[in-house]
Amino acid sequence: MHPITKAIRLQTPRTHQMEHSTPLFLTSSFCFEDAEDMRAAFADEKEANIYSRFINPNITEFTDKMAALEGTEAAYAMASGMSAISSVFLALLKQGDHLLSCNAIFGSTHTVINKYLPKYGIEHDYFEADKPETWEASIRPNTKMIFVETPTNPGLDILDLEMLGMLAKKHNLLFVVDNCFATPIAQQPVQYGADIIIHSGTKWLDGQGRVLAGVVAGKKSIINDIYLFCRSMGPSLSPFNAWILSKSLETLDVRMERHSNNALFLAEKLEHHPKLNWLKYPFLPSHPQYDIAKKQMKNGGGILCFELSGGLEAGRQFLDNLKMLSLTANLGDTRSIASHPASTTHAKLSEQDRLAVNITPGLIRISVGLEHRDDILADILQALEN
Ligand SMILES: *Cc1c(COP(=O)(O)O)cnc(C)c1O
Questions:
Q1: Cα–Cα dist 384/386, whole Å
Q2: Rounded CA gap, 61 and 11, in Å?
Q3: Residues 79 and 181 in one domain
Q4: Where does this protein act, in terms of pathway (predicted)?
Q5: Digit-coded pLDDT (tens) for 318-373
Q6: Ligand 1 center to residue 205 CA distance, Å?
Q7: Of 222, 249, 276, which one is at a domain's C-terminal end?
Q8: Which among 325, 318, 305, 200 is positioned nearest to 263, based on CA atoms?
Q9: Residue 338 forms beta bridges with which residues?
């Protein structure tokens, strides 16, 4: 079956009730036939549900679909995107190891790398997203992992996955991609040699701003190491959230098609607006890494960003003028969302660190929803004009 069909048809085995839609397994533990059955399950001699901190049928259904969509052998899910990211770091890196990360990454990922990994003796360096000629020179003898997002949040830089995959292979590094912005519909990093693909399920995978979740996908052996770490450390995903997400994946492909069509429409309409210094969208020919985006992505995704010529005050004014678009911290929703990173998500970074990742004072990020595209455009235009 095609992965899109698997995202709809992979299903927990039907119970004797003959239900069509998967039931919610809201149970903390599972029963055994007898003492021998229980012993074998605990000894990992048979695959069995034991306890929902480890695994639960709703989680397995969701992760089976994610592995199918990402084209990997296995996947595991946790309580949030950040628990997925921190579990990857802590399960696979140890004292003395060096993590090489792109500088343009999600704000909380920065905090984990800068503030917490050093406590465990894990070193790091950042390379610049738009200077690929410097990447290889940043690799050290003790570098174990390379971590990137593409497109990056919120600057929408595109990193060349093929080049990164070759570097990782040459230097024997674990290649980790946060694929949250693209989704597996637009981009499958495993095709370029990624060892671990991470998602915040909170964003496009849910797509309706209801639940938090994180996913890791990759080879069985690596995912098993992360699973064993999580089953003891405990960042478990709620079966209810997994049930929601498994249903959401049935519509991921059609939703992403509309999100990206709406985003491209807005990008083309707004690109030359006089109040904007620039507008960035991966599938606009004016995007600095347009050729790479076209090579590795099937669509440009649902996010666009632009810079208001009026700077910080114009950014705040723009948000105040919006009538329909939501002002909220999330992205990847049916409802269009506007955010102003300099005063919110990235306010903890210094001005200099913000500028290093192209977060200028007037930068606005739009997560394009599923409303009629004319309504989204009209709201943005009136907010710009006023
Ligand atoms: C939101 C986000 C995360 C963190 O996910 P949570 O589910 O909020 O913990 C990580 N990476 C990217 C790119 C994100 O947008």
A1: 6
A2: 6
A3: yes
A4: Amino-acid biosynthesis; L-methionine biosynthesis via de novo pathway; L-homocysteine from O-succinyl-L-homoserine: step 1/1
A5: 999 999 999 998 999 999 999 998 888 778 778 888 887 788 999 999 999 999 99
A6: 11
A7: 249
A8: 305
A9: 327, 366
Q: Which residue bears the tokens 């069995």?
A: 48
Phi/psi region, residue 31 (left: phi>0; alpha: psi -120 to 50; beta: rest), is beta
Pair 232, 276 in one domain: no
Token couple for 224: 């098993």
User: In the chain, where does DSSP find H-type helix?
Assistant: 3-9, 35-42, 57-70, 81-92, 107-111, 161-170, 183-186, 220-233, 239-249, 252-270, 290-296, 311-321, 351-356, 373-385
Q: b/e map of 192-220 (b: 16 or more CB within 10 Å)?
A: bbbbbbbbbbbbbbbbebebbbbbbbbee
**Selection from 151, 138, 8 nearest residue 69 by Cα:** 8
Is the CB of residue 296 below 6 angstroms from any atom belonging to ligand 1?
no
The answer to whether 239 touches 58, Cβ cutoff 8 Å, is yes
Distance 106 CA to ligand 1 centre (A): 7
Q: What is the mean pLDDT of residues 56-75?
A: 98
Q: Whose CA is nearest to atom 7 of ligand 1?
A: 81
Range of the structural domain that residue 110 is part of = 3-249
Ligand 1 atom nearest to 85, measured from its CA: 10
Whether residue 189 is found in the same domain as residue 100: yes
* Centroid of ligand 1 to alpha carbon of 344 (angstroms): 15
The 8-class DSSP code of residue 273 comes to: -
Residue 263 sits in a domain whose CATH number is 3.90.1150.10
Q: Are residues 232 and 256 in the same domain?
A: no
| DSSP string covering 326-347 | EE-S--S-SS-EEE-GGGTTTT
What's the rounded Cα separation, in Å, for the pair 315 and 277?
13
CA 353, 358, 360, 366 dihedral sign is negative
| pTM for the structure as a whole | 0.96
Give the span between the Cα atoms of 386 and 381, in whole angstroms: 9
Using alpha carbons, list the distances in angstroms from residue 346 to 15, 101, 351, 353: 48, 17, 9, 9
